[in-house]
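Collaborator request, handled under Task 6.
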Amino acid sequence: MLKVRRVGRQPDPYIPTASMADIVFLLIIFFIVTYNLEVDKSRVVLPTTMVRNEIPRESAVISVDQSGIIRVSGGKETSVPVPSVEEVGSFASDVVARNPELAFVVKADKDTRYQVVDKIIDALKQAKVKTIFLLSDQKTAEGGRR
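Structure tokens returned to the collaborator:
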């Protein structure tokens, strides 16, 4: 019997990876574009209201939790605690000096004493903040939350 034998070397099997770099690059761009940075991570239970307006995305945030800890953020960086309401005023003055049109959002726990929230709003007014939003939880007509 005659056996046929191949002469030469067979090519090694491989997986084409030329387009892998393109796919990885597109995935990185996708995650960068869709990433949503949360600047204020303090946990508060918001008071409920019947009407709610949308707030601008790049707003400065002042939050007060149930224990009275005040945290501030300029809208792009993570919030940091401040020792007193007077510090909120100096923080707001600095932010307004950089961007006079920036809106401020006051995010206070529903059990926070009103006097604390009032002092924060007064400090923001003295810093010449033009727009102040009070964050709340809205009940819908069906009784659920939005």
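The cover message to the collaborator said: "The beta strands are 48-49, 60-64, 70-73, 80-82, 104-108, 132-134, 137-138. Helices lie at 20-34, 85-98, 114-126. Please let us know whether this matches your experimental observations."
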